Amino acid sequence: MYLSRFLSLHALWVTVSSVMQHYPSVWGHYDVCKTQIYTEEGKIWDYMACQPEARDMIKYVKVTLDPPDITCGDPPETFCAMGNPYMCNNECDASTQELAHPPELMFDLEGRHPSTFWQSTTWKDYPKPLHVNITLSWNKTIELTDNIVITFESGRPDQMILEKSLDYGRTWQPYQYYATDCLDAFHMDPKSVRDLSQHTVLEIICTEEYSTGYMTNSKIIHFEIKDRFAFFAGPRLHNMASLYGQLDTTKKLRDFFTITDLRIRLLRPATGEIYVDEQHLARYFYAISDIRVYGRCKCNLHATGCKEENKRLLCECEHNTTGPDCGKCKKNYQGRPWSPGSYLPIPKGTANICIPSISSIGNPPKFDRIWPNISSLEVSKPNQVAPKLAMSTVSSVQVANHKRANVCDNELLHCQNGGTCINNVRCQCPPAYTGILCEKLKCERDPGGCSHSSGQGAIAHRLLLLLTALLGATGLCIC
């Protein structure tokens, strides 16, 4: 008897351990769109918010230079070292592979010696400004997840602007200004990201931190994504739940980290001095050896995959959605308006799947035998029983028939998080949950939102439900 109980407890521990793997210390990986769960009625899908894995987005970039003939080497020219204007034994020649510095060398694999780099023409037309625009385009909406890093082979520029576009290059907004003297160059007081806070994180600043002239060990310029994340997630980004909650509820914050294009505007090369040495203009130019941009395809929390097709990135949409960004419902799945997924409640979020149109509910496709567990519904009025629908997709007869539909049942519309369906008209939710299907945490309504401890309490409640069910199956009890 004791042996059988020991084996039962061992099996219980293995099961709970596997469940706990889905609740890491850094919450919210969102790497699964759906899982099968088993109920008394059989298998159903449990849907959740999901997103692609972050990756090196430079692999998919298209680069454009303006002016187009700004790259050195055509015709060949000699350039000098910044630190020694009399050391002019370097040559750029586009017709010779070993001496050419084309734009693609900004994105090749580094680590070789000597390093490879793109280089502009020298400032031979001084005092006419040496302006260069380097545009990086993805033809896809990207969510940034790490710092943008630009490594210069020459000195870091005296003046530079990093810009972003959200509409494929039609309009541009500044991301950050860089200068040796912010007040003189851009009429802005110098700041660093450390001077910002949660309330000012979206402020566009000018920094002098990365424009200190030519130094062999100071060639890198950053646009600090992680430091801005840290205002919400903590210095080591341990509290990602807080960051995801802010991204979910603050559109301006979400848009701040979202791009379709980046533009590097080089306005004045490194001079290393107050005045330009007009006798040695061949020492002034731009050279970039590496650009790093890490992010993920924006799929509106409806996909974990993003593939390249015909030289374009496309989300591999789930939740019955479609489009490059999973931005609309599939045909015959327009039973309610499309909505992006939600990071909340932590850790699985809310899928907001597209549901079948009313006309197709009577004859569901044969391949979709496992009916979706709808993760969230909206109600137009408090006394309205039926979920709110996209009225343009259904007839008045169908709407009238649908108003008699159940809010919950034990077949299609399951109460979540341990809720109980009462007479098919409402879910009786556990104390920590609310919503039509008990899909939301009550603490979300509080001014301070859901704290780390309240989220853990919800997880503990789910695990307690699982333990109770498993112990009941093994004939044991929690005493």
Automatic annotation (TrEMBL):
What residue stretch is flagged as signal peptide? 1-28
Q: Does the keyword Signal apply?
A: yes
**GO process annotations (BP):** animal organ morphogenesis; axonogenesis; tissue development
Keyword set, alphabetical order: Disulfide bond, EGF-like domain, Glycoprotein, Laminin EGF-like domain, Repeat, Signal
Q: Please state every residue range assigned to the domain named Laminin N-terminal.
A: 46-296
Disulfide feature: C429-C438
Q: Does the keyword tRNA processing apply?
A: no
One matching Pfam family is EGF_LMN_ATRN
User: The EGF-like domain covers which part of the protein?
Assistant: 404-439
Q: Which PROSITE patterns match?
A: EGF_1 (PS00022), EGF_3 (PS50026), LAMININ_NTER (PS51117)
Q: Which InterPro entries match?
A: EGF, EGF_extracell, Laminin/Netrin_ECM, Laminin_N, LE_dom, LMN_ATRN_NET-like_EGF
Name the chain's protein.
Netrin G1
> What PANTHER family does the annotation carry?
NETRIN-G1, NETRIN/LAMININ-RELATED
